[in-house]
């Protein structure tokens, strides 16, 4: 069962929207290498607002993701691409439906 999640809000710098979208698309390959990331979504909420939602079976999986390659790459690129640091919110999953 999925019990933990992250919601990460990202605001692109003006003119960097396409680069943020590309970064998120490219990050999918890194996430596929994380066995404890049971769900991962990169979404666009507006012209400059993006978000990542991901889910995990437990705290250990979430912590592994937060110290993994996607998080490392995001923090490295943040000053160049983002208007402000990523807003990372930890959440508890109350219910889920995931297909195998």
Architecture overview:
This protein is an alpha+beta fold. The chain has a domain at 19-51 and 58-92: Alpha-Beta Plaits (2-Layer Sandwich), CATH 3.30.70.100. 36% of the residues lie in helices and 28% in strands. A 4-stranded antiparallel beta sheet has the order 2-3-1-4. Helix 1 runs antiparallel to helix 3 (69-81). The longest helix has 15 residues, at 17-31. The protein is globular, with a radius of gyration of 13 Å.
Structural class: alpha+beta
The CATH architecture of the domain at 19-51 and 58-92: 2-Layer Sandwich
* Poorly predicted runs: none
Query: How many beta-strand runs?
Result: 4
CATH class of the domain at 19-51 and 58-92: Alpha Beta
Shape: globular
**Fraction of residues in H or I helices:** 25-40%
N-to-C terminal Cα separation, in Å?
12 Å
Q: From N to C, what is the helix and strand string?
A: EHEEHHE
Q: Please state how the strands of the largest beta sheet are arranged side by side.
A: 2-3-1-4
Largest sheet properties: 4 strands, antiparallel
Radius of gyration: 13 Å
**Number of distinct helices:** 3
Mean of the pLDDT scores?
96
Indicate the CATH topology of the domain at 19-51 and 58-92: Alpha-Beta Plaits
Please report which band the strand proportion falls in: under 5%, 5-15%, 15-25%, 25-35%, 35-45% or over 45%.
Answer: 25-35%
């Amino acid at each position: 069962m999925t019990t933990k999640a992250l919601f990460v809000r990202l605001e692109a710098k003006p003119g960097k929207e396409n680069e943020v979208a590309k970064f998120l698309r490219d990050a999918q390959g890194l996430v596929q290498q994380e066995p404890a990331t049971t769900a991962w979504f990169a979404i666009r909420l507006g012209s400059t607002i993006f978000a990542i939602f991901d889910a995990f079976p437990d705290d250990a999986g979430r912590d592994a993701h937060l110290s993994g390659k996607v998080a490392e790459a995001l923090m490295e690129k943040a000053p160049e691409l983002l208007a402000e640091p990523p807003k990372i919110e930890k959440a508890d999953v109350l219910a889920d439906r995931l297909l195998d």
